[in-house]
Design a protein that fits this description.
The protein is of the alpha/beta class. Helices cover about 25% and strands about 25% of the residues. It contains nine helices and 13 strands. A seven-stranded mixed beta sheet has the order 6-13-12-7-8-9-10. A hairpin with a 3-residue loop joins β12 and β13. The two termini are about 20 Å apart.
């Protein structure tokens, strides 16, 4: 398979469609989903809660096998037209290899989430070249901006996503086309050289992260560089790097400065400050979708083609 060939776009949702909600990672209660359920119903969708909702095994939403079975059931049920991952945390990587995507490949549907869900984005993009949706999750709906929720709705219902972002002092001007890949930096680092690892050649890499030590940001970016992931990029989009931590002896740079050091000299457009990641204003991004990235001295523009 040509990794830069156009990815398959799952069918858009329609009024009355069923949409599954499962947890592939940390546990979550039905009460924590009520805001999201009401919002989805306003969009004239029918939320269906999976067996993992309300389950508990240590910090997880049930044991690995239950989480895999729950996701598998939603994958294989043709009446479920999209799957929202309820929350992130940690755990998706523990169950992804138990999944069978045979039916999904024949009948793709939107898989939605961010953070730990980067495992699914990477795996599905790398193995099957099917688009997935990096976007807010039901746990976060109550705190999300209108713009974040509207972008999720637009993507699910097949509307084109187009974004304009204010200038950032670290931006690198330029213009590029390519498939968007990436997600949470820590997760990308953790799946390096695995079956779910991403191919970045000729692509536009999106990165975001939360609650990491600054030296670890540099460690992870150095690993991406040494693994050749930065060598043949078409462009870079930097989202939120929030709640970063430092050691008693300061690292000496903030997270964005570290990222700039690694990607600012590659001769490709780099857009900082994109509203996606662990932010209230977490705009939807289609992983695997082809985008046009244009960065000038006044703004950055990211449009899906």
């Amino acid at each position: 398979m040509n990794r830069n060939s156009p990815a398959f776009t799952p069918p858009p949702l329609r009024s009355g469609d069923k949409i599954g909600i499962v947890s592939t990672a940390r546990k979550i209660s039905p009460d924590e989903l009520q805001v999201a359920i009401r919002q989805l119903e306003k969009w004239k969708l029918k939320p269906v809660l999976g067996d993992t909702i309300g389950q508990s095994f240590n910090q997880f939403a049930g044991e690995d096998i239950l989480r895999a079975q729950d996701f598998q059931q939603m994958l294989d049920d043709d009446s479920i037209k999209a799957i929202l991952c309820a929350r992130g945390g940690y755990g998706t990587v523990r169950m992804v290899d138990a999944l069978n995507f045979s039916r999904f490949k024949k009948n793709p549907k939107w898989i939605v989430g961010y953070s730990d869900i980067t495992v699914l984005h990477a795996h599905i993009h790398s193995k099957f070249n099917i688009e997935t949706l990096h976007a807010t999750m039901p746990l976060n709906f109550s705190g999300n901006t209108k713009e974040a929720l509207d972008s999720l709705k637009k993507a699910l219902f097949g509307k084109k996503l187009r974004y304009t972002v204010s200038d950032h002092p670290f931006n690198v001007t330029g213009e590029a086309n390519g498939q968007l890949t990436g997600g949470n930096l820590s997760v990308l680092y953790s799946i390096s050289n695995s079956r779910s690892d991403i191919d970045t050649k000729g692509k536009i890499l999106f990165l975001e992260d939360l609650d990491e030590y600054l030296y670890h940001i540099d460690r992870m970016m150095t690993q991406l560089k040494r693994a050749g992931k930065l060598k043949h990029l078409a462009g870079v989009v930097v989202g939120g790097f929030t709640k970063m931590r430092d050691n008693e002896i300061p690292y000496g740079k903030d997270a964005l400065s570290i990222l700039r050091e690694h990607v600012g000299h590659l001769g490709i457009p780099v857009l900082f400050g994109f509203p996606a990641g662990h932010l209230d204003d977490n705009r939807a991004l289609i992983i695997g979708g082809r985008v046009h990235l244009k960065v000038n001295l006044k703004q950055g523009v990211l449009n899906y083609m």
